[in-house]
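Quick one: structure for this chain?
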Amino acid sequence: MPLERLFVLPNCVDLQRFLPLTREPNLIARYGLQGSTVLLTVGRLASAERYKGFDQVIELMPRLVERFPSLKYLVVGGGDDRGRLEKKAKELGVSGNVVFAGQIPEAEKVAHYNLADAFVMPSTGEGFGIVLIEAAACGLPVIGSRADGSREALLDGRLGRLVDPKSPSELYAAIVDALQSPGERRRIDDVETFGSARFQERVEGWLTQLIGSPVTTQLSS
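Got it. Here's what it folds into:
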């Protein structure tokens, strides 16, 4: 396929919905997060998709809890690999610090992002990683992988920190850096790259290029 015939249209995120918000007390109570520092990952817990990086984070939890005694790792998502991950957390002595939320309703997704102090997904085979953008849109410090599509989603590091997912020391340092100076959650301006307005501009530009005259599109909300 000639390169000039290719057009990349990235996924977009509803930036009017994914926003920095205060923590919801009912969710804090649901997961026992009172007074906790919260590290978050959102993704399927599928035995056929163990590239998300849950294992790498859980394996670091003993060291992280030594550094941050109030730390909880909130894992949001369902799947057949949950039992194995729960067993791993127990064997490492951090079962009380790893909270498995299971699959949640879509309506609660933004509130779950806003429970966290940082988002981490050190994946090795993610095609794009839209959850990274959703987390960034909610104002979270984001840690992703430089080894897969996460790099594109995080704009080569402009939206978050990129790490080698196979380097425990690099991942540990990134998590510590994100958690040790939390500050106020705020959205990085570059997240607008994945907003619906920019999506529409790309579609209009593509169609104009193909047709040869200006085209106006209107996206439904």
